[in-house]
Amino acid sequence: MHVRFQTPHQYVFIHENVKHLLLIWSKESKKQLFVAEEEESTLVLRYPGETYTETVLEQVEPVFFLDLEGGVEAILGATFYHRGRLIGMYYDKKQPSGPPYFFEIEGGAPLEIPDEEYQEVVQTFAEEFPEYVSEGPEK
Fold first, then answer.
1. CA distances from 138 to 4, 9, 18, 67, 99 (A)
2. Considering the entire predicted model, what is its pTM?
3. Who's near 132: CB < 8 A, 6+ residues apart?
């Protein structure tokens, strides 16, 4: 069975080690957030409540979509911690299976990761989310 929503704006992302589904309804300018739990081969969507939804959206909304150089529209795929700092893994909206991009998230803003730390961040991501790593991600 395949489920389709009437909005083209559906995003699965991981934040604080919890998988979420974000739906954005264009006409109503409304956002809905669900916790997505895998049970065997089924993805179960659970509404976490208004307070949880507001808290998560407050944390990720300012950094969920990024416009990168070269016209890349990047979308937040996961957050994780590296050396006590919050890192965001982003993917290209037009080429989601392409190499990911990583940014530090501080004060609701994305920051470049210094070149000398970038590979360590990539390694931390690979250790935290081995199921999402096929080939070595690049900068």
1. 32, 26, 25, 18, 6
2. 0.85
3. 77, 78, 125
